Amino acid sequence: MPDPAQLRHLHAASAVAYPFTELCKAGKLTEASATFWADDIMSVEPFPGPYALLTGRDAVNGKVEYWSRENTIHAVAVEGPFVNGDQFALRFSLDCTMNASGVRSVQHETALYTVKNGRIVEERFFGMF
Amino acid sequence: MPDPAQLRHLHAASAVAYPFTELCKAGKLTEASATFWADDIMSVEPFPGPYALLTGRDAVNGKVEYWSRENTIHAVAVEGPFVNGDQFALRFSLDCTMNASGVRSVQHETALYTVKNGRIVEERFFGMF
Questions:
Q1: Which secondary-structure segment (H or E) carries A23?
Q2: Boundaries of each SnoaL-like domain copy (chains A, B) (predicted)?
Q3: What is the average pLDDT across B86-110?
Q4: Domains contained in chain A, CATH given
């Protein structure tokens, strides 16, 4: 029988992972970030450029707003949470059109979240290229 | 235009991620680990017990062998690689039967691999509970 203390440690992120994921699956991404991001959240993207590595809620929201202007989302599928200790992962499929080119595609990514003191302190994105 | 040096750094794991994933998708898991694991690979599982945290090829192979004895795999689906810098993620769905109980289910997990000097130095598993 697993030791309860070990289980609590191993799934420390669950208290954030499950409600955060539920909001994401309901399309409530703004509420999810407002509720669960730490003020000094760090965001790590797999591509280069001005949004590759950001710190702080305002900066990361700036990236989200930039992305929302450049793309039209048709559908989002969210799978997870996949949990281990103080981290959890979500798998996203975003059916979207790049506004500038009109090109529509499905973007696949895995997002890895690190939790500390009941807040997400880092979001790290992994892309399929 | 992205800086080539930045792209190389951001996708440093790709040289391992793509061939490793190809072997996994072909069902050649033994060859994948034999080819790409570092000798001192660390393995981190999300559940407690003797196989939760292991170091070294022999120890991790011991976990794989234990799991293979306890379970019968009917099908494995592998998605990815999802890449960022020196890490990449794979998403696994394993349709398997626990031999002891006869219970069949589909296990979903995300595996996060850390690459150093052309070898996988850590595999970290995230489960859906």
A1: helix A14-25
A2: 15-126
A3: 96
A4: 4-127 (3.10.450.50)
